[in-house]
Automatic annotation (TrEMBL):
Annotated gene: Commd3
InterPro entries with a match to the protein in the record: COMM, COMMD3
Domain of life of the source: Eukaryota
UniProt protein name: COMM domain-containing protein 3
UniProt GO BP: sodium ion transport
Amino acid sequence: ILDDPDLKDIDPIVLKHCHAAAATCILEAGKQKADISAISTCLEDCKLDKERIEQFCTEYQKNKDALEILLGSIGRSPLHITDVSWRLEYQIKNNQLHKTYQPSYLVTLNVESSDSGSHPDVSFSCTMEQLQDLVGKLKDAAKSLERATQM
């Protein structure tokens, strides 16, 4: 979008905001299975002119089925972590055979979903500092959740 010559005079930040707003509108319309009249009313409230609303609705109608299929493939609920496993990996040499002696952790999160589809485990590698940062953020999240449930 940023390379389009017709849009070169528009500030890139404004263009990105417009793109995000349009994507959000399309996503919400698909999620709500909104009909054309509901979409038109919403866009009229946003002060879009009639010609643009008609063009938007026409394009939305053309791609509605594909959008619903795409949204259906995403699933309805987030994955749940059921287990975590880890191992310490110690890199002794790099590709150029220089000694490095860099420890890192290989972490695997076992996940499941309430949807029927199976999901592969999530694996990543991190340094000691990155793992400590992750653990700290998880502790902060747990404390925030605990405070929220006590209110």
